[in-house]
């Protein structure tokens, strides 16, 4: 097959996949808000995927030092890895018609790094990018669902790594909710807020009930306020979907 025909074949596959794939963000986690501060003896590497052109149906996995980390990575998704200092090479896991480009990060303790995954026709590319570039783009990205996470070093929230048991717990929780409401769809959602500092005050400004961890709320928009003496106030609207279990990590910035 000539190079031109191969590219046309790939384009046709990707176009069909993008049309038939439906909503690739079903079951996604919370939207990215800000980075997590790593422990002094660890580094954190965020991997996120940009939006492509007719490539939404292609969901490559990602390998770290030749070991699978996630089985699929959808457009506008991300995941953070908590790692010991050292060298880490990220490679895409996909079928052979694609050219691939890997990225290597030399991680130092206490530092945060960013790797972007780009998927175009015939090419899957991983590249280390600056924090400013990454954070400005990641505001439209969502945390990967635990069901596609393989490596336990992937965080699903601050201080907690994902595993197969975590995925099973999420599925079991969802199943229990459905069974409790057999005659109708689940309309409520749950919200957890993981603040730093941990003593910060958490309020939901547009409702009367006092916030408690795991509070059950109707699907909709909520105005979250997190405050602590000596820190800048966090104030942001979030949207909860029916049946969603949201964990919102928030790190307050010190004043001055």
What does this structure look like?
The longest helix has 18 residues, at 3-20. Helix content is 17%, strand content 39%. It is α+β, with helices and mostly antiparallel strands and 256 residues long. Residues 14-27, 158-171 and 181-186 have low confidence and may be disordered. It contains 3 helices and 18 strands. The chain folds into 2 domains: 25-164, no CATH class; 185-251, Immunoglobulin-like (Sandwich). The strands form 5 sheets. Strands 6-9-8-1-4-10 form a 6-stranded mixed beta sheet. A 4-stranded antiparallel beta sheet has the order 3-2-5-7, with no helix packed on it. A 3-stranded mixed beta sheet has the order 15-13-18, with no helix packed on it. It is globular and about 55 Å long. A hairpin with a 6-residue loop joins strand 16 (220-227) and strand 17 (234-240).
Write a concise keyword list for the protein shown above.
single chain; 256 residues; alpha+beta; Immunoglobulin-like; 2 domains; six-stranded mixed sheet; four-stranded antiparallel sheet; 3 helices; globular
Brief write-up:
The chain has 256 residues and is of the alpha+beta class. It has 3 helices and 18 strands.
Rg result: 20 Å
Described by its quaternary structure, the protein is single chain
Provide the residue-averaged pLDDT: 80
Largest sheet: 6 strands, mixed
| Strands, count | 18
Low-confidence stretches: 14-27, 158-171, 181-186
Tally of helical segments: 3
Quickly give the structural class: alpha+beta
Q: Which term fits the overall shape?
A: globular
Strand content: 35-45%
Strand order of the largest sheet: 6-9-8-1-4-10
Q: List SSEs in N-to-C order.
A: HEEEEEEEEEHEEEHEEEEEE
Q: What is the number of independent domains?
A: 2
Helix residue percentage: 10-25%
